[in-house]
Amino acid sequence: xxxxxxxxxxxxxxxxxxxxxxxxxxxxxxxxxxERNRNLKIPDWALPLWGNMTRVAKxxxxxxxxxTLHNRFRAGLMIREILRHSDxxxxxxxxxxxxxxxxxxxxxxxxxxxxxxFNQLAVPSSTAIITELHEDAxxxxxxxxxxxxxxxxxPYRLEIPGCEGFRCSLPTFKEIAKPYVVEDWRxxxxxxxxxGGIELFP
Length: 202
Known about the structure:
Strands 1, 2, 3 and 4 form a four-stranded antiparallel beta sheet that branches. By secondary structure, the chain is of the alpha+beta class. Helices cover 47% and strands 10% of the residues. It folds into two domains: 2-64, no CATH class; 68-197, Rossmann fold (3-Layer(aba) Sandwich), CATH 3.40.50.1240. Belongs to the histidine acid phosphatase family. It comes from Haemaphysalis longicornis. GO terms for molecular function: phosphatase activity.
């Protein structure tokens, strides 16, 4: 604990950014990582402290995404969207082949954690989680989930705990997702409904 406090004091002095908690360290590391990945010059003090910042950032990631409530609020609306579209296709109500969403690393981490496939590592830039809906020869629908964090190789197939190998039947997928689905965001946050019945992610 003392070494972490010393690290935060050192980083605050060197960066000029107020370090209030571990998340502050992670945010600073995120900024430096982006600059480094884009071949921008980073401060001379950053590299000697890189390992310690990475260690603290990893602890923050593990603690943040080990909570059902946290993952529900971070990824619940996206999970609901995927379930809704999958149901529509399975019922023959939609023939849309592809939905793509842009988001941040925090949503991807929460989404992966909700389904038990998060590797507890910081999510790199340009990462994608892919959920594919398939229909087998008997008319049964199932989900396959893939993870792409490297442009030089094909996506990794993910094995969702509670499913059969890399195939997760749609009913099982929905059951696993149930604790994380946010039906009414404003109600969950204790806010009044929007006027005129407007919905976010209707």
